Amino acid sequence: MDDVTVLLVEDDGEIRDLLSAFLRREGYRVETADGAPAMDRLLTGLVPDLVILDLMLPGEDGLSICRRLVARGDLPVLILTAKDEDIDRIIGLELGADDYLGKPFNPRELLARIRAILRRTARQQAAGAEPAGRLYEVCGLSIDLEARIVETADERHRIALTSAEFDLLACFIEHPRRVLSRDQLLDWTRGRLADPFDRTIDVTVSRLRRKLEAVRPDADRLITTVRNGGYLFAGDVREVRL
């Protein structure tokens, strides 16, 4: 674990000290910042493996910071929210945060979520270093599950997906024309780290649809919502033999 660096952005000094001490005991290297200026100074010479970001920060707020971090494309973000900040939490997920955790929380749950994000990131990095494989053609799109690339079949347009969005798309590709419940999708993408009212899947589906709509105007019909059931991927999936 000592080769994994976590950047904790939290303005409450007591919480910051408690969490950083806990994560260090678990074997992580931890850098801390009390807001955007300190975070930006650290990021000039630091590439953390994960950013833990409190949304309630002085100066530049956490949602604005989250937008900037996600735009970089190389920093997984776990946001911390107060229990009554449902709207901000959902917006954070819409912006592309990998996960969220509401305050107050059990540090062990935070640890479990960190490990889940790092596992997904490790799979993505490992896939990117391997030769392409498991290639599918879906309604004019080319999807490489190993290299984690989604682009139009003519290779003119590549769709940039977060790790959570790609994991969800992979579930649909591997189980086409089947109704997949939210519980199934949570289990396959996050290992059941969510409570029964977790809206992560709904938000991620919404983000995925919007990105697919850039090249597939009928994306809302490609991924259909099944009332009281979940979601169904209605596209024709064809595996390409390499």
Which regions are unreliable across 5 or more consecutive residues at pLDDT < 50? 127-132
* Strands, total number: 12
* SS-derived structural category: alpha/beta
Oligomer: single chain
Task: Record keyword descriptors for this entry.
four-stranded antiparallel β-sheet; 9 helices; 12 strands
Task: Describe the 3D structure.
The structure is a single chain. The chain has 9 helices and 12 strands. The model is unreliable at 127-132 (pLDDT under 50). It is elongated and about 55 Å long. The chain has helices spanning 13-25, 36-43, 62-72, 86-95, 107-128, 163-174, 182-190, 200-213, 219-222, and strands spanning 5-9, 29-33, 50-54, 77-82, 99-103, 135-138, 141-144, 149-152, 179-180, 223-226, 230-233, 237-240. The strands form 3 sheets. The chain has a 5-stranded parallel beta sheet with strand order 2-1-3-4-5, with helices on both faces. The protein has a 4-stranded antiparallel beta sheet with strand order 8-7-6-12, with no helix packed on it. The chain has a 3-stranded antiparallel beta sheet with strand order 9-11-10. By secondary structure, the protein is an alpha/beta fold.
